[in-house]
Amino acid sequence: MSAVFESIQPRPAPIKTEGWVPWIRANLFGDWRNVLTTVIVLLLALLYVPRLVDWGLVQAVFQPDADVCQAARGTGACWAVVTEKHRIIIFGRYPYEQQWRPLLATVLLVGLLVASCIRAFWKPWLSLLWIVVIAAFMILMGGGMLGLAAVSSDQWGGLPLTIMLAALGIVLAFPLSVVVALGRRSNLPAIRTVCIVYVELIRGVPLISVLFMASFLFPLFMPIGKSPDVLIRVLAGITLFAAAYLAETVRGGLQAIPSGQIEAAHSLGLSYWQTQRKIVLPQALAMVVPGIMNIFIGIFKDTSLVTIVSLYELTGALSLALNSDANWRPFKLEGYLFITLIYFLFCFSMSRYSLWIEKRLSVSKTR
């Protein structure tokens, strides 16, 4: 008798493995440690969350009236300080009637950053788009042409300055870090020594010292009237500082590449730069994506240190807005919570994008 194949109808899994309930069971109540931690967190949330909601929403003041805020001190938050001072916090000392320019410039730059993170836009013309948008950003912010009133760089501030310093610092620091990382592994003693001295010197001092030297000490070595603008000096300091840390992260990825792959590339007749571009760097950078993104987030937050050289970015603009008005000065906490939300949104977005990149890179490893 010939065997007859009969398909078996699919049956549901004995235990549901997708959805919120399985996730909660696995992550919050997986073992006694998770159960204990979950219970403690829930108790703390039940104790403090109602108080925070009452302070931040129920008893909060939203109308821009300093007297009402003073009456509500100790019982409710004064979000009116954000309503009253948001333009100074966002745009700093930029002329009030011209603040549409930094708004448009920031929208263009943020749109460029978002487009650069989408794979569909990874085309050769993206580099040209960067040049066009950066030029448009500088023209809008600085003016002096196309009928726009000139605004000196010391009046730039707030969120536009923060995003510009972070974006340009990252874009300029990354290729420099790759070159320095390769230089530290070079067989040429002179190149290797220069790269080692640069990395160890920059990493041996805090960023605030680098900004101080770039802003106050560097002009002393330049002819009178020939020193670059303070904004350029600060951007150069941030770039050099970030590149030193990125170089060590990239070098860690380079060291993880087996030497057999490099030897195989040489046996195929590939040159040094062909080997690095096609074999070594793609794998090395993929291995250190979390470390690179961590430094990118650090660069974005470290822009708050430029206040020391009288450039009032987001954090400095908040101090500028509140210290100049005694009526709103007692409500710094609400102001700092507002800019904390802005920093969180940008940093969280970068973190999620890093996870997306890691997920995309892991596809090739799971095949």
Present the secondary structure layout.
Layout: H1 20-27, H2 32-58, H3 66-71, H4 80-91, H5 100-116, H6 125-142, H7 158-184, H8 189-203, H9 207-217, H10 230-255, H11 259-267, H12 272-287, H13 289-302, H14 314-323, H15 332-366
Helix pairs in contact: 4-7, 4-14, 5-6, 5-7, 7-8, 7-10, 7-13, 7-14, 8-10, 9-10, 10-12, 10-13, 11-12, 13-15, 14-15
In brief:
With 367 residues, this protein is an all-alpha fold. The protein has helices at 20-27, 32-58, 66-71, 80-91, 100-116, 125-142, 158-184, 189-203, 207-217, 230-255, 259-267, 272-287, 289-302, 314-323, 332-366.
* Strands, count: 0
Largest sheet composition: none
Strand content: under 5%
CATH superfamily: MetI-like
Shape verdict: globular
Number of helices: 15
What order do the SSEs take from the amino end to the carboxyl end, as H and E? Answer: HHHHHHHHHHHHHHH
Which class in CATH terms?
Mainly Alpha
- Uncertain spans: none
CATH topology: MetI-like fold
